[in-house]
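Hi there. Long-time user, first ticket. I'm pasting a complex I've been working with (about 639 residues overall). I'd like to know whether the download I got is complete or cut off, because the file seemed smaller than I expected. Thanks.
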Amino acid sequence: MFKNSSFLIDITKCIGCRSCQVACKRWNQLEAEKTHNTGGHQNPPLLSAHTWTLIRFKEFEKKEKLHWCFTKVGCMHCEQPACASVCPVGAFTKTETGAVVYNDKVCIGCRYCMIACPFRIPTYEWKKAFPFVKKCTFCFDRQTEGTRPACASACPTGAIAFGTRTEMAKKAHELLKNNPEKYNPHLYGEKEVGGTAVMYLAPKGVEFKELGLPELAERPLPTWTWNALRFVPSQIVVVSAAMAFFYWLTKRKTKKKDVNKEVRHDA
Amino acid sequence: MTHNQDKVIGTGSIILIILMALAVPVAGWRYFNGLGSITNLSDAYPWGFWISFDLFCGVALAAGAFVVAAVVDIFGGKTMKPLLRPAILTGFLGYILVGTALMVDLGQYHRIWYLTWSWNLHSPLFEVGWCVMMYLTVLALEFAPVVLEKFKLEVPLKILKRVSIVLIIAGITLSTMHQSSLGTMLLIMQDKLHPLWHTQILPILFLNTAIAVGIAMVIFESTITMKVFGRPAETAAQGKLAKGLPWVLGIYFIIRIADIAFNGRIGLIFDGSRESLWFWIEMIIGVIIPFFYFLSSKVRSSTPAMFKGALMVMAGVMFNRFIVSWLGIRFPEGSSYVPHIMEIMISAGVVSGGIMAFYLLSRFFPVLSEEH
Ligand code: SF4
Ligand code: SF4
Ligand code: SF4
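Hi, the file is complete. Here it is re-exported in full:
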């Protein structure tokens, strides 16, 4: 079994063959999708319940140099996953392997995970009467048996390096140090939202944002909700105590008034 | 009741029944063919009209029950007592409506009770779910005396009376918890929600606006019911309750502006963007105008005037809820969402059911006045 696994995706090495995309479909037995021509090479255009990873094709000119970038997108397997923190029934777990996995036995279908994910990864079975959330599993099943994820195994160029997160980060920094002319100096995913298990290297002169990877703060998203939720126990105590106190106060006042009234009656 | 009013109720009921009836096959269709068959929701827009309207607006509008309970039973505002029962009924039905709507919206609706055994203490929705379930029970018990009185069941009545203060305090605590935690839910979207609305104190702002709209809703609902049942308006009680509004709105205004300034975002409210415009619409219609309006004792002694003011507060808070749960969120580029007509039909059907239930219960049970 692998532990603290991670992908280092080197966008400069990806040739856009989509072997990973196909391997993922095959391993996870995902249905083929009817797609339509969107004018580019990206196919299908979006992640879906049947497509857990895809190559995003981006073409742009910079300083008279043509860049054609292929970015493998899918679940980032965050170190502090927003999806797992918001799920009311705890359907998501960050496992020892590093994979964030979904348990369809408890999901109630609120789709809070989908709106919470900073990378917009979880997808839904919109056409089913009893739908589930779908996303990349980091080949959790393979990893527990000591096999590398299907997509990484299928990659012919080594653009999807697989190893522990520490190894991958080390490797990335070495690459950045030795080839400053080749890479954008930022290692995407090292710090974003508290770090992700999937990290990216981009070619020099290309911004991650241009590749569709969102600009994110380093602060893990679940700290925002927890910073409010942790006050709930004190809220319970303070509100009920205050209400009981005011009730007692009101009671006393009305009693006094009644007594006063009686006194006046007597007079 | 005059003949004329009977007729008004007649047409009203027919419309309500039609809306309810229309929602049934739509919901049925969804149960066989999935959410995609009746909604325009997508992976880019996993939440839509139902979440904004039924959940976020619905829960806020149902806040009147705990506000009036606190004012009357805890702070001894006896003059407002006539508003209590209708407010509790509105709250009770309001939460039932939220629950009903969720039965259509949730992908695995039949598992809603899984919340009771599969816990995630880090999830704000877990807390909201629990609070709503418990509060619904509390509201049912708070409303029960109305039914028991009708059938003259003295024993349970006595028991309920004895524990009533515990129920009331529990209800208030549960309300402050989930009203604020609905705001906490949106905190996770730090990367998506517009910075004018995303702030760590969102839960406090949520509670604050819930109190404001709770008061407004009680004024709104009591005005309409008294008219429908041809009874004299509860102007005095409404006016007394309305006295709280400038306070609540004033405090909201101060914390809102102070928080924006504290986060160094004052510039955003003057940058002429679409969001800055929304901010001012919400502030002016929902906060500033009603603040001054309800300061006037002339307004507070006229039911039609208070009704207008209440509408403004309700519009402002509902607009706020739509912004934080939908309009102010950055959705993926190239995606779009306009609610499907069938989504609206479900909500319309559910709301109609609530109005109908309110009408029938008030008609046949001592809701508008305590025992005859
Ligand atoms: S990328 Fe999204 S779905 Fe994947 S672990 Fe992070 S928050 Fe969860
Ligand atoms: S849709 Fe399912 S997995 Fe996602 S947050 Fe809701 S219950 Fe959890
Ligand atoms: S890790 Fe497995 S599930 Fe995830 S994209 Fe690769 S092949 Fe698909």
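A couple of notes from our side: Chain A has a mean pLDDT of 93. Strands of chain A lie at 5-10, 54-62, 65-73, 92-94, 100-102, 123-124, 133-134, 160-164, 198-201.
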